[in-house]
Amino acid sequence: MKLHNLIPLRRFSVVGESMNPGYKPGERLLISPILLKFAPATQGDVVVIQHPLDAKKQLLKRVIGVPGDRVEGVDLGPEEYFVLGDNKGKSEDSRHFGKIKRDQILGKVWYKY
Q1: Domain extents in the chain
Q2: CA 74 → CA 39, 49, 87, 109, distances in Å?
Q3: pTM of this prediction?
Q4: CATH 3.30.460.20: does it fit domain 3-112?
Q5: Residue 35: enclosing H or E segment and its boundaries?
Q6: Predicted confidence (pLDDT) per residue in 61-105, tens digit
Q7: HSE-up of 27 (CA within 13 Å, CB side)?
Q8: Measuring CA to CA, how many Å separate 21 from each of 18, 39, 44, 77?
Q9: How confident is the prediction for the chain on average, in pLDDT?
Q10: Contacts of 46 (CB under 8 A, 6+ apart)
Q11: Peptide bond before 21: cis, by omega within 30 degrees of 0?
Q12: What is the rounded distance in angstroms from the CA atom of residue 80 to the CA atom of residue 95?
């Protein structure tokens, strides 16, 4: 039995430079939505999120703050997260659109290829 039959995975292509140097434009990722059902995203996880201001866009970001944290003067309530790009100078992230809800996290990065 193959592992991908046990864990539903989605393909995602990196666009833009917000996660350089770890994730470069054109690289492809497998993300797992199901992993979030068993354990919430934690600090340091790289996730794909639904853009809070543009439903047509999905973004690759790193989780910096989790429920109960205070990040950059923002208190995070239940189900709220703060996400940033690794390349902060070229990233549209929680510094621009604010905290996100757990249901806006589409999946954790499982594999890069």
Answers
A1: 3-112
A2: 23, 19, 21, 26
A3: 0.90
A4: no
A5: helix 35-38
A6: 999 999 999 999 999 999 999 999 999 999 999 999 999 999 999
A7: 18
A8: 9, 27, 15, 31
A9: 93
A10: 19, 22, 23, 60, 61, 62, 63, 108, 109
A11: yes
A12: 14
